UniProtKB/TrEMBL annotation:
The keyword Glycosyltransferase does not apply. It is a multi-pass membrane protein. The lineage of its organism: Bacteria, Pseudomonadati, Pseudomonadota, Gammaproteobacteria, Alteromonadales. It comes from the Bacteria. Keywords: Membrane, Symport, Transmembrane, Transmembrane helix, Transport. PANTHER family: NATURAL RESISTANCE-ASSOCIATED MACROPHAGE PROTEIN 2 (PTHR11706:SF33), SOLUTE CARRIER PROTEIN FAMILY 11 MEMBER (PTHR11706). InterPro entries: NRAMP_fam. The chain crosses the membrane at residues 7-28, 34-57, 78-95, 107-130, 142-160, 180-204, 225-249, 269-298, 310-331, 337-361, 373-394. It comes from Alteromonas aquimaris. This is Nramp family divalent metal transporter. It is found in: Membrane. Its main location: membrane.
Length: 398
């Protein structure tokens, strides 16, 4: 049996404050009309994460170094390295601001020190955890809190007496309009997290499959499907809960009333419980985002991917620092998180193109190169995100 648990580490990064906030906003504003985007994202995530994990297992390389080492031209390799550093390094810094903002929102509800103060404190805590390298125990605790919150959301949804017929009607009437495009991109960005592809490949590169690659790949695929499927279920439940509480009502969803979704079950303790869960989700993602950036940047620059390496530490420190600065700059909390998710949706095509190139050209993959189905799904993901992004950009300019 495979002892590696990277699929659950990916799930811990997958269920962050961006997932909770974006799903809540989508359910409150559009009901189940945008569930199509979530379903598409879940299937696409399973396929893309399978590619990343397969790359790491077979080649012993992460996505960044796998890409640069699979290209013959030195000029192209350098260009790819620059693109990876820019896309993942800068993109994760934006994503980190959303993670810290979400966690700060949770703690501010418990102790009102202000979002800026909590963002700084959380950034220091995330940095301290990564610096010591002893973050796994804390990460496991945070994952447990996230799973607990998911259970409470499910119970809350059932107690809130949702209208399942209305949910089905809206699900059967998918919506895609210019006003909803930002939300669609945010849902895709919070589900198909670009940095998770780099993180998964790097984690699996350190796993030794005992020369039984087909079995290791099959077990890793099953684990990833379960973990990603669970993350998708949480997102769906949060959307349904927000829809039941806010859709079609006069009450607007904001940072101050997110916890009202839990009041049918938890009463006066809803705010406290939601705050702890949001903090747990935020801090977990605040650790994994800079870690993934360090793996990607160091791999692209052909530097050691070790926690104690000076360059490795410099990268995640820079990501956390930028995240703290942006999170404490006074942006509206929900807007900052939503913008970070939309930015990841725009970043996704770049990363997906990188992954497809590697999975079809890497000389060490052999029989484990991409098959037609994986290439087809990857191509559809890239095409859809590009079309949505270009359509949105065109209407902003014109």
């Amino acid at each position: 049996m495979m002892k590696d648990k990277s699929g659950y580490i990916i799930a811990a990064a997958f269920i962050g404050p961006g997932t909770i906030t974006t799903a809540s906003l989508a359910g409150a504003s559009y009901g189940f009309h945008l569930v199509w985007a979530l379903v598409f994202s879940i299937i696409a995530t399973m396929v893309l994460q399978d590619m990343a994990a397969r790359l790491g297992l077979v080649t012993g390389q992460g996505l960044a170094d796998g890409l640069t080492k699979s290209l013959a031209s030195p000029v192209v390799r350098k260009l790819m390295a620059v693109l990876i550093v820019a896309a993942i390094g800068i993109g994760n810094a934006a994503y980190e601001s959303g993670n810290l903002t979400g966690a700060a929102m949770g703690l501010h509800q418990l102790i009102p020190l202000g979002l800026s103060s909590w963002s700084v404190i959380l950034g220091l805590l995330a940095g301290a955890l990564l610096y010591t390298g002893r973050y796994k125990l804390i990460e496991s605790t945070l994952v447990g809190l996230v799973f607990l919150m998911a259970l409470v959301f499910l119970i809350t949804l059932l107690f809130a007496n949702p209208d399942f017929n209305l949910m089905w009607q809206q699900f059967s009437s998918p919506l895609l309009s210019l006003p909803s495009l930002t939300m669609v991109l945010a849902l895709i960005g919070t589900t198909i997290v670009p940095y998770n592809l780099f993180l998964h490949a790097s984690l699996m590169a350190q796993f030794k499959p005992n020369n039984n690659l087909p079995k290791a790949i099959a077990e890793c695929r099953q684990q990833s499907i379960r973990a990603i499927g669970f993350g998708g279920l949480i997102t769906l439940v949060v959307m349904a809960t927000a829809m039941t509480a806010f859709f079609g009502s006069d009450s607007a969803l904001s940072a101050t009333n997110l916890s009202k979704q839990l009041e049918p079950v938890l009463g006066e303790y809803a705010q406290w419980f939601f705050a702890i869960g949001l903090f747990a989700a935020g801090l977990t993602s605040a650790i994994t985002a800079p870690l993934a950036a360090a793996y990607a940047v160091c791999g692209a620059l052909n530097r050691p991917v070790e926690l104690n390496n000076r360059v490795f530490r410099s990268v995640w420190m820079a990501v956390i620092t930028v995240g703290v600065i942006v999170a404490s700059a006074g942006f509206k909390p929900l807007a900052a998180i939503l913008i970070a998710q939309a930015a990841n949706g725009l970043l996704l095509p770049i990363v997906a193109i990188f992954l497809l190139v590697v999975m079809n050209t890497h000389p060490s993959l052999g029989e484990f190169r991409n098959k037609t189905f994986s290439n087809l799904v990857g191509g559809i993901v890239i095409l859809l995100i590009l079309l949505l992004a270009l359509y949105k950009l065109a209407h902003l300019i014109l």
